[in-house]
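Support case: NAP complex. Customer-provided input:
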Amino acid sequence: MIDAIRPLAVVTGASSGIGYELARLAAEDGYDLVIAADEPAIVEAQSGLEQYGGRVESLQVDLSTIEGVDQLIALIGGRQVDVLMANAGRGLGHGFLDQDWAEARFVIDTNVTGTVYLIQNVARDMRDRDRGRILITGSIAGLMPGSFQAVYNGSKAFLDSFSFALRNELKDTNVTVSCLMPGPTDTAFFARADMLDTKVGADPNKADPADVALAGYRAMNKGEGDVVAGFKNKLQAAIAAVTPQSVLAQQHRKMAEPGSGDL
Ligand SMILES: NC(=O)c1ccc[n+]([C@@H]2O[C@H](COP(=O)([O-])OP(=O)(O)OC[C@H]3O[C@@H](n4cnc5c(N)ncnc54)[C@H](OP(=O)(O)O)[C@@H]3O)[C@@H](O)[C@H]2O)c1
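Agent response - structure generated as follows:
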């Protein structure tokens, strides 16, 4: 029997949080999946996603390295990618001068270098075929200077900007680029960034990653430029657009300074 041809979605950072939910939405929609993340949990994610009936291939790989991204490209193996959700990312709290350089660099290499290298490879094929959808997980953090999360916010400012630039470059094609801009979301993100003692990290009212992913997935399917997930975050994004950078930096200090969660 010949298998029906199913569309293919590639999702990075699909082992947990927003990325797992994005992959689940694609699986429910009938996509085959290629998923990647850095730790063994990606294999458990694969089992969870296989229940939707499609083919799921997982890769445990460090996407902060060119070699790691090359492994993912090799697994894709020239197949037509219908959807790319470039979501893998890592945060890092504390003052910049108190951060370990290797950790700060890992944030830049994962969020920026690995992400745009993967996008360049996959999007070239999409442009050649004149078809494809790309969703980049940026952040509202990219709209404000991130005191005590400076490198992370800078990396997301890069992605928010990059997303709209690539979108414009592809405007005469049928390849769309959308940017998902979540606000604080209830995932492993803050624990991994060592920010649980901060006001934002300790906030009990963070968004549900399933809701955030759905907002992004829908925006991608409609070919929208960006989506800020959640009303409160939409308001914060609108205010950020008309607020001086120095004021935003001070506001960010209040929510991200170590110990601010104990006040
Ligand atoms: N949570 C928030 O408040 C928030 C807000 C705005 C934007 N975001 C963005 O949303 C995205 C998903 O984060 P999340 O909140 O869902 O946190 P999460 O649960 O920690 O998910 C992060 C995902 O990225 C993967 N990843 C990180 N570094 C990687 C690397 N070097 N190589 C391969 N995979 C890597 C992780 O895999 P491993 O577990 O295997 O490392 C995991 O699957 C990130 O880009 C983050 O910046 C999050």
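Residues 25 and 80 are 19 Å apart (CA to CA).

Case will auto-close in a few days if no follow-up is received.
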